[in-house]
Amino acid sequence: MKNIALRVSGAIFLSAALLHLLRVLFNIEVVAAGFIVPIWLSIFGFIFALALALWMFKTAMKP
Q1: pTM (predicted TM-score)
Q2: Which of 2, 37, 45, 59 could cysteine-pair with 20, CB 3.0–4.6 Å?
Q3: pLDDT band at 2 (very low <50, low <70, confident <90, very high)
Q4: How many domains does the chain have?
Q5: Tens digit of each residue's pLDDT (9 = 90 or more) over 4-51
Q6: Do 17 and 46 contact (CB within 8 A), yes or no?
Q7: Backbone angles phi and psi of 32, in degrees to 5
Q8: Which of 19, 10, 20 lies closest to 62 in space, CA to CA?
Q9: Cβ–Cβ under 8 Å, residues 15 and 56
């Protein structure tokens, strides 16, 4: 059961990372509460979410 939860978490983090990457590649503007979120913030979001996804998948592979 633990492995399934880790894999689902990894998939969610991986999808978040891919969305951040797509925002950077296609230069999509995001406005939150009237504030324009800078593109460079998505670069950090991509790295952070990808690191979490890899961590979840790596932990799920342990016996």
Answers
A1: 0.90
A2: 45
A3: confident
A4: 1
A5: 999 999 999 999 999 999 999 999 999 999 999 999 999 999 999 999
A6: yes
A7: -125, 115
A8: 10
A9: no
